Amino acid sequence: MAYAEELSSALNAGLLNQLAKATELIEAAYHEGRTVFIAGNGGSAATASHMMADFQKTTLGKEIGITKRIRAIALTDNVPLITAWGNDFGYELIFAEQLRTLAKAGDLLIVITASGNSPNILAALEVAKQIDVTSIGLLGFQGGKSKDLCEVAVIVESTNYGIIEDAHSVFMHMMTAALRTTVQAN
């Protein structure tokens, strides 16, 4: 029961305001045909992959005939490319170099990280700034160094990784539900 109470406390109204701002940025990217890139490590990598799948497919509901869809790419999903970048140039560049290749000015980057201090996330956020890609952070603890590099930071102020990751998963599903309404209205 203590875990449920801590999770409930972590999902406070201040976070919901930031989450609404993040969702608005994703909706704008959708309307303008821009790409949403998503990155995270460990459990957050799984959330990034899940988010990409929900943005691409779940937002359609049962309407596969919808032609205007959310362009989402999980930078976590190309294992050969990740290991090549990591092996040859360093693990801290696995997301940044993918962004350099794939992203265009105006695209959107969502980073998911409990600590907010993962070197590969920070490098991706730096590259995003360099190439004029807007960034959203789903963060934990106090947001780490990432919070100052994101246009919108949704920070779960907890030191419990489980609480942070569960909150990020809830946020992902909340955004997907909002985006489904947007996609199905077009």
* CA radius of gyration: 16 Å
Strand content: 15-25%
Instruction: List the total number of helices.
Output: 7
Residue windows where pLDDT falls under 50 for at least 5 positions? none
The biggest beta sheet, please?
5 strands, parallel
Mean pLDDT reading? 93
Shape: globular
Helix content: 40-55%
The H-and-E topology, N to C, reads as HHEHEHHEHEEH
For the secondary structure, the number of strands is: 5
Structural class: alpha/beta
Distance between the termini: 42 Å
Widest β-sheet, arrangement of strands: 2-1-3-4-5
Brief overview:
With 186 residues, the protein is an alpha/beta fold. It is 52% helix and 15% strand.
Question: What characteristics describe this protein?
Answer:
5 strands; globular; single chain; 186 residues; 7 helices; five-stranded parallel beta sheet; 52% helix; alpha/beta
Mind explaining what this structure looks like?
- The structure is a single chain.
- This protein is of the alpha/beta class and 186 residues long.
- It contains seven helices and five strands.
- Helix 2 packs across helix 7 (161-184).
